[in-house]
Design a protein that fits this description.
Helix content: over 70%
Largest sheet: none
Order of helices and strands: HHHHHHHHH
Number of strands: 0
């Protein structure tokens, strides 16, 4: 019985080795048949990974250089080399620098970022106490400081003793706004007017 068992185990081993060789041969045939496609896909994957890593490296390097240039410009706003680097490496950060520069020096701006442009026009309208300009700014749909602009308009109207117009302006501020507390205080003042 042990000889039968030995013969049976040898047969099983031979069958498993035969199956292994058969699958290896199939794999070799598949590789030979699709060799160009397999190598092309592998090459494409390698090139894609290298490209992705290169792009990430360049983006991070640009970000670092732009931040260094911005920090230099905060300390020394007339550093032309830093202005050039910032303008080339990060246009949005350059726009922020321009906004700060325009705000300090009251000069003409070429700011194109929507929110900074709106904020600049709001500040100009507020400093000149121009109610029409404040109306234009506060009526823009997605303006960040919309309710605050309306409140400031009401303050200017109160200062000009146009109390009814100020009350109407304050009604435009929603109850859920964070400016509503200030509007309530001004409304209490206007009750006696």
């Amino acid at each position: 019985m042990s000889i039968k068992d030995d013969i049976s185990s040898v047969k099983n081993e031979l069958n498993s080795e035969e199956k292994f060789l058969e699958s290896f041969i199939k794999l070799e045939r598949f590789y030979k048949k699709y060799k160009i496609i397999i190598l092309s896909v592998a090459g494409l994957i390698v090139v894609s990974i290298i490209s992705y890593l290169s792009i990430r490296y360049v983006q991070n390097d640009n970000k670092v250089q732009a931040n260094v240039a911005f920090n230099k410009l905060i300390k020394s706003p007339k550093d032309l080399a830093s202005i050039k680097v910032l303008k080339e490496k990060n246009q949005k950060l350059y726009q922020i620098f321009e906004y700060l520069n325009v705000k300090e020096n009251n000069k003409k701006s070429d700011i194109t970022l929507k929110y900074l442009k709106e904020l600049l026009s709001y500040e100009k309208a507020l400093s000149s106490k121009n109610i029409n300009a404040l109306n234009q700014v506060s009526m823009q749909k997605n303006f960040l400081l919309k309710e605050f602009a309306i409140f400031n308009k009401a303050l200017i109207l109160t200062d000009q003793q146009k109390f009814n117009d100020a009350k109407l302006a304050l009604k435009l501020i929603p109850k859920t706004s964070k400016v509503n507390d200030l509007a309530k205080i001004l409304n209490h003042y206007l009750l006696s007017k």
